[in-house]
Amino acid sequence: MPRIDFFHFFRYLLGIVVTVYATVVTLQSLYDWYVYLSGGDKYISMLRRYVIVQGLRLRFRAFWGDVLICLLLCVVFVLLWRAHSIVWQTEDTLHRHDVRIATTR
Amino acid sequence: MTSESPQPDDRDGETAAPPLDRRLSDMPKDVLAHLAEDLGLDPTRYDTARDLAEAVQQRRQLIAAMDRAALLEVIRWGRRPVAFDATNEQIAQEIARIQSMRFSGLSQRGLVALARLRGLEVADDVPTPRLRHLLKKQEGFFSRLNRRRRALLGSIVANIVGDGQLSNEYEFLPPEPGGPAAPDSPPADSLKADIEESGLFGGITSRIKRTADQYLNQKLDEIEARIDRKLDEIDRRLAEWRDKEIANRIRILKITLWASVIVAVVSLIYSYVTAYLWPH
Question: Which pTM does this prediction carry?
Answer without folding.
Answer: 0.48
